Amino acid sequence: MDTQIAPDGHLEVLSKAEVARLWDTSHGGLYQLFRSCALAVLNCGSGLDDGKELLERYKSFDISIVQRERGIKLDVKAAPASAFVDGVMIKGIQEHLFAVLRDILFIDGEILKNAHIDLETTEGVTDAVFHILRNANLLQPQISPNLVVCWGGHSISGHEYDYTKLVGYHLGLRAMDICTGCGPGAMKGPMKGATIGHAKQRIENGRYLGVSEPGIIAAEAPNPIVNDLVILPDIEKRLEAFVRMAHAIVVFPGGAGTAEEILYLLGILLHPDNAQLPFPVIFTGPASAEEYFQQIDQFIATTLGAEAQSKYKIIIDDPVAVAREVQAGIKTVRAYRKLHGDAYYYNWLLKIDREFQHPFAPTHANMRGLALHKNQPAHLLAANLRRAFSGVVAGNVKDQGIRAIEQFGHFEICGDPDIMHAMDVLLNSFVQQTRMKLPGKAYIPCYKVIK
């Protein structure tokens, strides 16, 4: 469908110079990035999780910027019909479109081209993430800690999805706000449940934050419940945004992307500088997911050891216990940050090693060259394991990764035999449980574990 839309909530007031810059940008190198992200937003709820297939299915889709004295309009051509109701674009999708435009322009102009932000240093990256989140109005200094980040797969069973809603509901009853990767499945369920909990408690300003990045947005298009969306420039900054904003993290069942998130978080928490820092982490799912978490726990034990296992709790089939554990953990976080003078809205004290910040390009050479052995500190092994799973995600759903697999064949993953065996077992379990792709599609592995 075709339409023109004006901003409402983002970019309402622009100078002539800003309008001119937007026009220049739409015809420059950023346009294809904006087009692909915009298409993913418009394709919300389609059941498609393949970036390459999405771009090829909507080859005639186009979006351009119309200059006006009062600001801008977006001229949208051949957009997915699911984004409209009776010929009018859904309000939440409109907001997400302008959020994408806001973030792409801000990152290009104020982060990547800013001489005062050095992305080659840990402090520079952390500052960059802070500025992107602040520009998107996601940092709220007047709110007591209550933000729960929920991770989990976009391809989960209906039973598991219902469980995520129950957990979200009990978190909402306790006035917790929700932040997720903003897609379907375990990213939508907690938000949906929390809306009911908030409504029952007459909480009218509940926050449902969605955090994404250009490479993953096609596979995890923002669900309509998200009322604050932000696009980070890459997966590493997206992950840092999660852990800097989070007051607690709840992990539901998922696939390679969820394993990547878990390894990222555990690698950070294993850093010696974070040994005393409270950070509530709970793995949870219905009774049917008990075996899944046993497999995750066994993988962590084999690769990272008992100290890593001590950084999380596993609670099976008890949403109330999860919510109470989160609530108690956040009280500890609040007391710690108050004692040490850290901000409630951005965890500055958290030490993130440069190995977790440097963008990883999942090329065939880089995947083969990963240091997957135990002759290194545990937090650095976690960083490399995270990269391996990031490559699997890229080969599964990202446009660039899928094309690389088509051209050069499988990613090869090699390392210590015991680590390779554990990884092979875990990845095979994801395949057998249909956690790699949405149901209805035969999964063809993009990787080969070399034992």
Automatic annotation (TrEMBL):
The Pyrimidine/purine nucleotide 5'-monophosphate nucleosidase N-terminal domain, residue ranges: 4-110
Residue ranges constituting the Pyrimidine/purine nucleotide 5'-monophosphate nucleosidase C-terminal domain according to the UniProt record: 330-450
Enzyme class: hydrolase
Reactions catalysed, as given in the entry: AMP + H2O = D-ribose 5-phosphate + adenine
EC number(s) given by UniProt: 3.2.2.4
Gene3D superfamilies associated with the record: 3.40.50.450, MoCo carrier protein-like
UniProt cross-references to InterPro entries, sorted A to Z: LOG_fam (IPR031100), LOG_family_nucleotidases (IPR052341), PpnN (IPR049788), PpnN-like_sf (IPR037153), PpnN_C (IPR021826), PpnN_N (IPR027820)
Protein name per UniProt: AMP nucleosidase
